[in-house]
Every structure is written in C-alpha cells, then in structure tokens.
UniProtKB/TrEMBL annotation:
Residues 1-22 form the signal peptide. This is Metal ABC transporter substrate-binding protein. Keywords: Coiled coil, Signal, Transport. Residues 168-199 form a coiled coil. It holds the Pfam family ZnuA. It comes from Clostridium simiarum. The lineage of its organism: Bacteria, Bacillati, Bacillota, Clostridia, Eubacteriales. CDD domains: AdcA (cd01017).
C-alpha cells in the first residue's frame, strides 16, 4: 500500500510543480505587459515637465535638449535623432522655439510616431518688429503662462491617450490634478499681485510676456524674445532711465544667462539682481513657477 501511495504521490508532485512553474511564467508575462511604458520624446525641459505631470509612471521619457543648452540654439546629433526611431510620441513647443525640429522629423523613419505641437489652441502673443521676419509671428514662451500651460498640458494628454488609450483614465486624472494645482497657484498670486500699485517688471530677456499677461504686469527687457545679439548702449540707457522713473527694486535675469547687462542696470538704479527661471533647462513646473511668482511679488511690494 505504501509503495502504491509513493508511486501516486510522485506524479502529483510533478504536476503541481509544473503547474506552479507555468503560473509563474504566465504572471511574469502578464506583469511585463502591464508594466510596459510608452516611449515619449520631448524637445526641452519645459515640455518634459508638463509631460511628466500627465504621463506619470506610464511613460518612458527622453528629453532631446540637454540642461544648460538653449532650445532654439540646439543642433540635434544622430544620437538624439535615433531616440525618435522607436518612440510612440514626440512633443515639442513649436512657434520657432525648436527651429531644428521639423527637419529632424523629416530625417527619421518611424511611421507610427505621433507628433504634438504643444502650442496649438493657446492664446498667442504676437511678436513685433524685426522678430517677425526672423522667427515668426508669435512669442513662443507659451508655457510661462499658467493659463496657457493648461492648454499645452491638455494637448499632451490627448497625445498620450491617442497612443495609449488603455490608460486614458489615468491621464485624465493626472491632468485634472495638474490643472487644479495650476488654478490654485494662479488664484493665490492673482489675489496678491492685484492689490499692488506697482506692476512693472524689468528682465534681461523678453521671455515673460505670457506670465505678465496672466497677472496684469508690464514687462521691460534689454533683449528681445529670442535673446539674440548685443543690446545697444541706447537701449540700455533707455531701460536705466525707465527703471529710475518707476523705482525698480529688482532686475531679473534668466538662469544660464550672462549677468553683465542686468548687473549694469541694477548698479545704475540702485536695485538688486535676482534670477528668474524660464524652465528651458531645469525646474519642476509648479514649484518653479511658484518661486518665480514669489520673487516677482516681493520685487513689487
């Protein structure tokens, strides 16, 4: 009897073992399928921050322009171009911010790649003078408006849903959460800034027109929208005279910019120099915009 039981037990043990192994393999396959993330390539940091807010842990993100490099001065190398060959989605700002993007897209062979120009449907600010001929009709710094950043984030959300419809609810939920954070931040500083008498902002680079529009501020800058060329002595003198007249306390310069001109103006008018972040190279979106707004508010009190 014991011998018979022994003979029966061995096949049963093997059967359980084999079924167990099969279940483990099936689970691994299922887990791998669930954990597979969408390959997304973005142009520069501001687009990366908006995309991370919506895509969360469902995406594998690659940023083309490295930290410390201006997006409109960048020239992609084969390595950056190759990152698009297997991507599902490419997101860029547009409006001349990345003049290399369209030529780069023409050079890749990826028929499944979806492309999002994040500026679409935003309320754009027109350029003026020589910049229209050189760079286009509109100011590209759309993401520096809290209001327009929501538009860009929505475009990104729709792009993610298009390439990954299974996670639509996840992307929708992240967008709602991100939008609420933006709305709360905007409401906080609208209340603070509206009460101020002074509304003039002096910057080295005219990148903050959208932010100023959000809060009823007036931007005065040494350099144009794309910060190209050297400012003339006449332009600097005019800004110094204006800064004295309106009693500017702070001259703002952008991260990675040369402080020379900003320091010259600040010295002449008895102001300090402080850094304001365009998010082109670094910075979390919500926290960085809050820091920018707090600095601006303090400069106007």
């Amino acid at each position: 009897m014991k011998g018979k039981l022994y003979k029966i037990m061995i096949p049963l043990f093997l059967l359980v073992f084999l079924v167990g192994c099969g279940s483990t393999q099936d689970t691994e396959k299922t887990d791998n399928k669930v954990d597979k993330r969408v390959s997304v390539v973005v142009s520069f940091n501001a687009m990366a921050e908006l995309t991370k807010a919506i895509g969360g842990d469902k995406i594998e993100l690659t940023t083309i322009v490295p930290s410390g490099v201006e997006a409109h001065d960048f020239e992609p190398k084969p390595r950056e171009i190759a990152s698009l060959s297997k991507a599902s989605l490419f997101i860029y700002n547009g409006l001349g911010m990345e003049p290399w993007a369209k030529d780069m897209l023409k050079s890749i062979d990826n028929k499944n790649l979806q492309i999002i120009e994040a500026f679409k449907e935003a309320d754009l600010i027109k350029n003026s003078g020589d910049e229209i001929g050189e760079h286009g009709e509109f100011d590209p710094h759309v993401w520096l408006s809290l209001k327009e950043a929501k538009v860009q984030a929505n475009n990104i959300k729709e792009g993610l849903i298009k390439v990954d419809s299974n996670n639509k609810d996840y992307y929708e939920s992240n967008y709602k959460e991100f939008s609420k954070k933006i709305d709360d931040l905007k409401a906080e500083y609208e209340k603070k800034i509206t009460s101020l008498e002074r509304k003039d902002l002096v910057t080295g680079h005219a990148a903050f027109a959208y932010l100023c529009r959000d809060f009823g501020l007036q931007q005065h800058s040494v350099e144009d929208v794309f910060a190209e060329g050297e400012p003339t002595s006449q332009k600097i003198k005019e800004l110094i005279d204006l800064s004295k007249k309106i009693k500017i306390k702070t001259v703002f310069m952008e991260e990675n910019a040369s402080p020379k001109v900003s320091e010259t103006i600040a010295k002449e008018v008895g102001a300090k120099v402080d850094t304001i972040n365009t998010l082109e190279s670094e910075g979390d979106y919500i926290n960085t915009m809050k820091e920018n707004l707090e600095k601006i508010y303090n400069s106007l009190t």
